[in-house]
Amino acid sequence: MTTLLALDIGGTKVGWGIVEAGDSLEVADRGSIPTDAMRGGADVASRICELAASLVASQPRISGVAVASAGVVDPDRGDIVSATGTMPGWGGIRLGALVEAATGLPVRVLNDVHAHGLGEATLGAGRPYRSVLSIAVGTGIGGALVEEGRVAFGARGIAGHVGHIHHHFAPDMTCSCGRAGHIESFCSGSGITAWYESLRSEGDPEVDDGRALQELAESGNALAVACFARSAFALGEATASLVNCVDPAVVILSGSMTRSGDMWWDALRSGFAASAMTPVAQTPILVGSLGGDAPLLGAVSFFLNA
């Protein structure tokens, strides 16, 4: 039995889990601390190192640290190559080396959405399939292509940036990356909320997040219904374009937007059907099964098999 510390570093919180790896992987204990991302990358890294050192000191059986992190990651060196403004100063942090120095243990670092996809592909809904296209649709949109249990990283580590596919519904919408027209700007939880707010009239109520917008749509508000239907249809079209290109055995969708009900799913499947080529039109589209454990378990899988 191997015991590893797994970390999941996001813009809001840093989740941790003690994972027992034997015939299967089990999260035996878990917790989290606030990321406080706006305090800057160096401060975030310092507190992560303190957390990891404390957990390792309290549980001497831990033999390594598996990290899933926001940002573009160099999976060989464990460095954060770049990051968006949601985590200022995170780009350039030599995270793997810092955590290794703090704990005295081997460390492997993987992008958080890559880790999520790897977890679902190898331990979750994708286990029966040889190749998996994983798409996480939450505050932002990310993804991973996993074949034979290995993540496709691309030449610069950014393969899987599904949210940055262009769509004709969004020519004037600014994405988190600074470009215009990407699906994240109106298909993600934050994006669909901003889209609704930009279109609403005085007669439409304000909403703070995707959940509130969903409740408004379910109450029959015409604009909210239209935003959900059009964004989900567009995401379905974008998903079909990816499937046409890479031909995965299955698509797995995860994240908060997948809990948006039949209205969202029906529109997404319609969009997929409208754009999928005939040979791939029957590709299964499944919902992820691991929830918040997916990036923790994916990071551990990467640590054990890299």
What can you tell me about this protein's structure?
The protein is globular and about 55 Å long. Strand 1 (2-9) and strand 2 (13-21) form a beta hairpin. 48% of the residues are buried. 37% of the residues lie in helices and 23% in strands. The chain has 306 residues and is α/β, with parallel strands linked by helices. The longest helix is centred in the last third of the chain and has 25 residues, at 222-246. The protein has helices spanning 41-58, 95-103, 112-123, 184-187, 189-199, 210-218, 222-246, 262-275, 294-305; strands at residues 2-9, 13-21, 25-34, 62-69, 72-74, 79-82, 107-111, 131-137, 141-147, 150-151, 250-254, 285-287. The mean pLDDT is 94. The strands form 3 sheets. A 5-stranded mixed β-sheet has the order 3-2-1-4-7, sandwiched between helices. A 5-stranded mixed β-sheet has the order 10-9-8-11-12, with helices on one face. It is built from 9 helices and 12 strands.
Short note summarizing the structure:
The protein has 306 residues and is an alpha/beta fold.
What's the structural blueprint in terms of helices and strands?
Elements: E1 2-9, E2 13-21, E3 25-34, H1 41-58, E4 62-69, E5 72-74, E6 79-82, H2 95-103, E7 107-111, H3 112-123, E8 131-137, E9 141-147, E10 150-151, H4 184-187, H5 189-199, H6 210-218, H7 222-246, E11 250-254, H8 262-275, E12 285-287, H9 294-305
Parallel strand pairs: 1-4, 4-7, 8-11, 11-12
Antiparallel strand pairs: 1-2, 2-3, 5-6, 8-9, 9-10
Helix pairs in contact: 1-2, 3-9, 5-7, 6-7, 7-8
